[in-house]
Each structure stands twice: as C-alpha cells, then as structure tokens.
Amino acid sequence: MTERLSNPDAYPGPIAVSSDGRGFVDVQGRPFFWLGDTAWPLFAQYTLDEAKAYLDNRSRKGFTVVQGVLAWGGGTGFEEAAPGPNWAGHRPWLESPAAPNPVYFENVDDLLRIAASRGLILAMLPTWGYYVNDVQTFNTENAFAYGRWLGSRYKEAPNVIWASGGDRVPTGFEPVWRALAMGLRAGDGGAHLITYHPCGWQSSSYFFHCENWLDFNMIETWTDWPMIYPAVAADAALAPRKPVVLGEPAYEDGPEYPLGPITPLIVRRQAWWAFMAGGFFTYGQDQMWRMDPGWTSAFDTPGAGQMTIFKSIVTAHKWWELFPNQGLLAGGVSSERTLNAACRSADGTRGMIYLSSQCHALVKLDRIATRNVKVTWVNPADGEERDAGTFATGNRTGRGFPESTAHWFSVPGHWEDAVLILEGTE
Questions:
Q1: Which CATH number goes with the domain that contains 392?
Q2: Whole-model pTM above 0.90?
C-alpha cells in the first residue's frame, strides 16, 4: 500500500452494528452516519489518478462509504464472459476464483489505503452477481475459497465492509452465496460487516434476514423510488433488528428509468425518505459506473452536492435518537411521489419533518413534550434556514390533559421541498 494514514487513531473503522441494532458505530462506539456513493468499477476500470480524484471529491463532500466491485465485468446488461482487467492489465483471478491473482489486488490494497487516508470506508463486492447466477463461474467450493482468501488478506484493514450479491437475487444459488459469506467470515474472523446487494425492487431481508452472517440489510429500489419509504420501514421493523441501507436507488441523470427523469429533487427525496423511515442512504450518479467520455466532469453534479447538505442538516442534530413518527403530521401526509415524512426523539423534545413538494402540512405541535417549540425551515437544496416561529405546544399547562395543538405550515415559495426542524423549549 502506497499511502499512510495521517492519523490512524482518528479513523472511524472498522465500524460495527450499534447495540440497539438500528445503526452503526465506529471503533470508539460513536454513531456512524452512512452516506454512501456508488462507483462499481472503482477497482477495475478507474486509473489510480482517477480513483484519487474521485475519492478526494467524495471525501470533501462528506460521503463516508463508497461501494465498488472487485470482480467487475461491465455491469448488468454489459457483462463480459469473465471479469475484466484493471487499468494495469491484471485480472482478479487466474484459472478460477479459487486462485486469486495477488498482483490484481495490489491495486485494491492501494485504493483501501488512499480511501482510509481520506476517511472513507469501501464496501467491497467480491464479485458481480453475473459470475454466480448467469455463467456460474462460482460454486460452493471456489466461492468459499475466494471469500476466505479475501477475508484473510484484508483482516486488518480498518475500512472494509463486505457486500455479497451484485445486482442479482440469490434464488437457486443460495448455497453459493452462503459459501462466499462463510469464506469471508472464516478469513477475517468477523472483523468486518457483511451484507447482500440484491437487484431492483428487492431487499437482502427477503432471502437472508435471519442468517447470522448478514449483519445489515441492503435494498435496491432502482426506478421504483416512490416505494423507498415503505421498503425501508418494513426492513427496519423486522426482528431481529438490523440496520437498513438503501444501497442502490435511482441514479442521478440515469437515462433508463421508467419513473424518470432522475433530477436533483428526486435524489433528495430518495435520501430523505430513507432516513425518515429509519435507514441510511447510498447516492448514485450515472456516470460513476458508465464512465462515458468526459465522465469525470460529473463529479460535481447538483445531486451530489446536495448530499453534503443532506448530511449537514441531519448530523447537526442527534440523528441517532430520532425514530420514524408519522403521528407528527395531522394532515398533508400524502403518499408515494409526494410523501411527507416525520421523525421524533424518544423523549419527545425534538422532531424533524421532510416535506417532499410545494405543499401544506398540518403539524401536531402537541407531540413535542415541552411547553414551547421553536420551528425552523431548512431548504434541502441549498441549506438556507428561515425562522418559522416559536409556538405553544399545549403541554405542561398545569391542566390534567394537554391541549390539542396543531399548526399549518406551507413550504416557502419557490422551494421544491423543505425540512422542518422542531426543537422543544421551556
């Protein structure tokens, strides 16, 4: 590995599942905010300079996780019969996955070190699903061997997460996918989290939720972005409780979506719905995997920049203490493409509401347990804040029952969507 951590003690990994099963914590037990990005060809097709420029950009924007594929073959619909070589001409394995090519993984070593020096975790898919389900390059024996080799090689890396799968459902190939996961676990002794990346409209929970190797669930919604909130909420409610990551939504600027175009507004809706439903979000920009000519000019698209704003709004508050609570909305909830969503702290002193369009919403201020509540508008497109007023909640009046108190809020003019921050005061 060519780069050193400037301050290894400050690096958050390896991350683990929090004690309540709802989220992640860093190596010091602090809540870890997953804001992911998708760069499937990172290990195979990005040159070292391109990878550095990309990882620098994502680090500056506040992303914390990058998803990429070790054995990549071009992506769904474009796969080659065997995984392609990396920029230096080396392929990931020799005669079979049971014989990984160490020279290929020297580039992976370098990228892990570069990412760690920039505070980024790499969620690595050992293979694209095509090589398990379609051409059946993998069987249970070589899948376990490959997984064990990878797990052992990266056992000490602080910034690794394993994501089995690769845009496929496991149906009919469950033993192979299990063998790969068991190999990873045998190799690293449980040092890193493991999940499963399915194809569109699916979740890992549909297939593996109760299996011990699956540490958290990952969802792909593809074009079906109006269903993000119920999909995430359903996984978040499962027992045993496991964190939920929307790992592949609709990509910004992606041309193939029936429910398109995927504008910055749609990108924001996807992120906010995933968070409000109790999950985490991975953004995607179309050119990060297509790599058409001039693709590096897409590093700074509006949606990518607005993920910085999304993170800054959420992390300005104790986000890990917020739980989904649609009871904050007495009216104007709407549904599907214009769903409005709310969350509230367990102690009742704080709340947050995402209004996904130009709309009016009736907010039940008496759901905030303090005497008064300060309300602030925030524009998720640019971070602008506006005072929305301070209101009596109807609580702590000295009477036996609180007053039923609600107030209409209208998204400020010319904003496409909005966030309401509710902070209780005495």
A1: 2.60.40
A2: yes
